[in-house]
Please model this.
Amino acid sequence: MDSVKNQSTSITNINAKKSINQTTANQAKELVIKRDDVTGVRGVNTNKELLIAIMVPQMDRFQLKAIEKSVKEELTKEYPDYKVQVSTDQKMFLELDILERKLEKGKTGEKELKKELGNIKSLMKEEA
Model:
């Protein structure tokens, strides 16, 4: 059953050498993807913030807020020095996926990263 889960999960680790250090986001994504109620995770971090977007299986969609809250609590406990935000919104997942790709290609500096995160956080507030 593990092999089935591994085939359907989605995670991208960002190479920290090419961009702003994303070790925290990478570790957080590794932690979150182990959950049975998460099939995909995207995330980025600055030196103070950690933004994570998760995908859940279709059958668990009615529990979105509970899953989101549980993931946030887990990450807040694991990373107490970061302001953690978690979203189950697919638009947030796509926005973080685009930002991850820019970071991986080294096309985003720290100033632009903070600006992009500001835009994504604004979208997250609209969703709430």
Remarks:
- The chain is about 50% helix and 15% strand.
